[in-house]
């Protein structure tokens, strides 16, 4: 490539990035909270948020001091900055952006409470929705019991390195599904010649379907790292799992190979050293996503993070391998898998997190049969159900305390 061409190529890429950023600012206006109020007394207190839009939310309790935390999909606050005084069982509350994508409300409790109910009242006629939380006074013993049980299946190292967000044991497991590539990173173009699809489209379509199937079970809350055709850094993908205190992270991809006859799914886990040459080459390709986007990889906080990751790695890897085994069993019952369906390599997207994770290559876009099947809902349903069954078995084994 001549220098001139290189410059113009970079220029085009910059313009594309700018367009993506501008588009996301224009179209992704988050819901806004327009009012917050408290009612009730020292036995029962109701907290109401008026929201334009319908952000997903989850709640959990924290002790020392007693608090209730409500996490919402990112919202803007049209009720003034900061905090407000309480009433009834609530001393006061604070709110703000917790991490990109998540807004948080912390209620400081006067007395220990449980959330008796929480529900949404849809506002009709253009009125805002109301998120309603009813708190009931309980004993400190009962409050302490409502905190997440000691992480029996996780080492203490893991629990200290995670954010101190503790979910009530009855709450849903949080699964982060990561549709590989996106935006100006199309992923592999192996299928373009066959039926005009690029990897980024297959991964998004399949991931949305996986989310639907997992959530329909009622046992999982699924967060997609992206729900549209947008670029995300590999590190930001894994951060979604970390910041949401996810229970599992699954990165979804579709492979390409020079031999069109090769087909079938492969499940990858993270290791320093690849299980084989093919896995090593695949990881190198997948890890290029950030390089393609011209992302600056230098980040000082990585040093601190890497120390933590070294501590949690072994336990996290063991859990990842257990799930990979379950998924391999389930997938082989449902779709074509490669002969050696479990492999490992040094994947950047699996590296930066203290959350058990796998990377699923659903099949080969360079294989005409796979390319066709992967875009069909029936196949995507089979993959979704295999992921669901494997998660059920995994959590039954590792967290049998609900
Ligand atoms: Zn990929």
Text of the CATH class of the largest domain = Alpha Beta
Biggest β-sheet description:
6 strands, mixed
Shape: elongated
| Mean pLDDT across residues | 80
- How far apart, in Å, are the first and last alpha carbons? 59 Å
N-to-C SSE string, H for helix and E for strand: HEEEEEEEEEEHHEHHEHEEHHHEHEHH
Bound molecules: zinc ion
What is the number of helices?
12
By CATH, the superfamily of the largest domain comes out as Zn-dependent exopeptidases
DSSP summary, beta strand count:
16
At the third CATH level, what is the topology name of the largest domain?
Aminopeptidase
Q: In the CATH classification, which architecture of the largest domain applies? A: 3-Layer(aba) Sandwich
How large, in whole angstroms, is the Cα Rg?
23 Å
Give structural notes.
The chain is α/β, with parallel strands linked by helices. 38% of the residues lie in helices and 29% in strands. It contains twelve helices and 16 strands. The protein has helices spanning 3-27, 140-146, 156-161, 192-195, 199-216, 234-243, 277-287, 289-292, 301-334, 348-351, 368-374, 377-398, and strands at residues 32-40, 44-52, 57-62, 67-73, 76-77, 83-87, 90-99, 102-109, 113-121, 129-137, 173-179, 220-224, 248-255, 265-270, 337-345, 357-364. α9 (301-334) crosses α12 (377-398). Bound molecules: zinc ion. Residues 180-181, 187, 199, 253, 286 line the site of zinc ion (ZN).
């Amino acid at each position: 490539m001549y220098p001139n061409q290189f410059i113009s190529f970079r220029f085009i890429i910059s313009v594309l990035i700018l367009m993506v950023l501008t588009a996301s600012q224009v179209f992704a206006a988050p819901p806004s909270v327009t009012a917050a109020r408290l009612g009730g007394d020292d036995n029962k207190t109701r907290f109401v948020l008026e929201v334009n839009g319908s952000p997903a939310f989850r709640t959990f309790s924290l002790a020392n001091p007693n608090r209730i935390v409500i996490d919402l999909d990112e919202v803007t606050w049209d009720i003034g900055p900061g905090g407000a005084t309480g009433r009834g069982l609530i001393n006061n509350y604070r709110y703000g952006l917790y991490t990109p994508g998540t807004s948080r409300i912390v209620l400081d409790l006067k007395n220990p409470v449980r959330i008796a109910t929480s529900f949404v009242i849809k506002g009709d006629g253009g009125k805002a929705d109301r998120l309603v939380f009813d708190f009931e006074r309980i004993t400190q013993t009962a409050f302490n019991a409502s905190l997440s049980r000691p992480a029996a299946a996780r080492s203490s190292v893991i629990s200290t390195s995670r954010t101190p967000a503790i979910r009530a044991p009855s709450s849903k497991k949080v699964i982060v599904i990561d549709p590989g590539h996106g935006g100006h990173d199309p992923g592999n173009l192996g299928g373009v010649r066959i039926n005009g699809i690029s990897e980024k489209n297959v991964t998004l379509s399949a991931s949305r379907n996986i989310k639907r199937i997992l959530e329909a079970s009622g046992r999982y809350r699924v967060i997609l790292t992206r729900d549209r055709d947008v670029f995300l850094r590999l590190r930001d993908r894994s951060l979604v799992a970390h910041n949401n205190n996810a229970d599992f992270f699954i990165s979804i991809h579709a492979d390409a190979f020079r031999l069109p006859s090769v087909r079938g799914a492969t499940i990858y886990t993270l290791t320093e050293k690849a299980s084989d040459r093919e896995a090593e080459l695949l990881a190198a390709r997948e890890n290029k996503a950030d390089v393609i986007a011209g992302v600056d990889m230098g980040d000082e906080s990585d040093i601190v993070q890497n120390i933590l990751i070294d501590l949690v790695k072994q336990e996290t890897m063991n859990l990842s391998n257990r799930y990979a085994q379950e998924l391999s069993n389930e997938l082989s019952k449902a779709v074509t898998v490669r002969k050696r369906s479990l492999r490992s390599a040094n994947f950047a997207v699996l590296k930066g997190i203290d959350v058990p994770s796998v990377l699923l290559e659903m099949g080969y876009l360079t294989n005409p049969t796979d390319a066709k099947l992967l875009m069909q809902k029936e196949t995507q349903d089979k993959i979704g159900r295999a992921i669901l069954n494997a998660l059920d078995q995994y959590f039954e084994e590792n967290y049998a305390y609900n």
